[in-house]
Amino acid sequence: MKSPYIQGLKQGFAEISVYSVDFLLGLIQSAAVVGFEIILWTFVLPSDSHSALLERTSYFLIATGIALIIGGARYRFGRELILAIKEGTLSFHLLKPIIPLLYIYSEHLGGQATDLFTGAIFIFVGALWVPGFSWLTLSLFLLMLITAFINTSALNIMCGSVAFWTTEATGIRNVFNQVTRLLSGQQIPLNIFLEILPKFWSQFFCILPFASVAYTPTMLIMAKSTTDIDYRFIISSLIWAIILPITANLIWKRGLRRYEGTGN
Amino acid sequence: MKERVTKLKLYASVLVKKIVFAWQTETAYAGNTVGELLSTVFYNITFLVFIDVILKKFKLIAGYSFPDMMVLTLISQTVFYAGLTFTYTSVELFIKSVRDGSFDTLLLKPVSVLFQVMTLGIRPFSGAFFSIPPLLIYIFLVIQQNAFHPSMFGLIAGIGGLIMGILFLHFFRFAFAMLVFKNKQIKNLLKTLEFLSEGGSYPYEAYKGIVKIAVLFLSPLLAGAGIPSLYFLDKTASLIPLAIEAGLLILFSTATFCLWKQGLKAYESTSS
Known about the structure:
heterodimer, A: mainly alpha, 13 helices, 0% strand, globular, B: mainly alpha, 12 helices, 78% helix, membrane (chain A)
């Protein structure tokens, strides 16, 4: 007998594969986001700094690619959770002998084929301009990719759980989205952002979990040598990878009790 | 004449009822309205921080200083909130009505169907509620930076450009929405156009070559905000950008009406 999660994954993929135009449009959407970031940098960087522009292009491609692959772009999993709670489809999953959160995630992941495909292309193209990485940066990159996935999933669950308390949670999701976009380095490289800020704010933003979504793994892949690695981000990502799942689990369970208590 | 007055009264009463209904819907979901307000405030704060950081590091964005960027952002946000009030939800509800068949009910009413479609989702209250805090922030910054001192020509051309920009955004969205009569899966295309609108946050003259032309057709926010800003900031004395904007408005409004007529005809013939 097939696992229900594999079936969910296949079902999610089947839904998007029906509309091939949507697949293409999804790709254009992600390309537009990166495209305008790159265009902005062509505005601000002097015309002679071609290498700096190439480095920025590479940075945005990799950062956006990572965010797309781990689900850190636009809180789409959070949106699925909000919809499941709002429309009551969560109730069907609760009746089955499955882990509802995992099932919704597998179904969601199947529908994210466009993001996974686009993300992989972005990372590959971005990495072509990176001078090369050592074993240390590569190992740390893979470790940070895992923590990025854990942290992002937890943030998505926390964002989606808001719907247990207020069913119309789209606005809150947008807040999560905008804060993450800025503080994860998807909109501006975090090192540039932090060096402008006063020391207190710079250190404060440094220890928030958002950097782990895109900046930390991107920093590692872009590092020319080990001296370019800022270990504060790595330590912070690891700590959040412990704190966030526990917090997200607590919030989800509490919300679920409320959902079941009201008879949904 | 009497007939015209009666007709006008009918349209006015329909509009009033729609506004009352909008009020009832928006107050019924107060939690979401507050959430959306938070979202719009956060968007503007993050955008301001972003612009501030870039300009502290690089001084200019395509020749635009911080005060210039504040004028550009004020104009682009005005166009956006006008769209939020009059256009976005109407387009969304129109597409939904064609897809689920509730569009049929509009055909039975004794008021112009196009009028009903274009006012399906007007949101005057939430439009004002969401737009006032961020616009006040930008107005404050524009005054504080002493950024707004256009010539008489710049002021008149800028206001003209702004009005045309709002109308252009309206017809641009509706022209693409009319494609729903031919293809029911249109939502993602409109979402893609929204992503392409991101370009409206940057100065128009920064774009070069073919991109400069392409973005005008893809990003109504760029034409709607970038062109009036050129005049408000006295960056041009030429009327060509304004003429381009007028051309775009004519093109997209004509396309909207043509596609509407064709689509309606096809819809009525298949549903009868």
